[in-house]
Design a protein that fits this description.
The chain is an alpha+beta fold. It is built from 4 helices and 2 strands, in the order αβαβαα.
Length: 73
């Protein structure tokens, strides 16, 4: 094998799903996870693809709710 095996849409070079952003995506999240944030996502499917900058925004906006989910267990 000459290189890495590329699986998934992120590995194949899909762009960020946020409006007015054309950066390459590095993460994939469900659309339900993004519904509680200020990010405007342009997608009709179940998955949304985020670049590094928008993933950081998502992490900051959902930090408290993700922490509460972890503490429930």
């Amino acid at each position: 094998m000459l290189g890495r095996l590329v699986l998934g849409k992120v590995g194949k070079g899909v762009s960020c799903s946020v409006a007015n952003c054309g950066n390459p995506a590095t993460r994939s999240l469900s659309v339900q996870n993004l519904s509680s944030t200020s990010l405007k996502v342009n997608t009709d499917g179940r998955r949304a693809y985020l670049c590094d900058d928008h993933f950081k925004v998502w992490k900051k906006e959902t930090k408290k709710s993700r922490e509460m989910d972890r503490l429930r267990f």
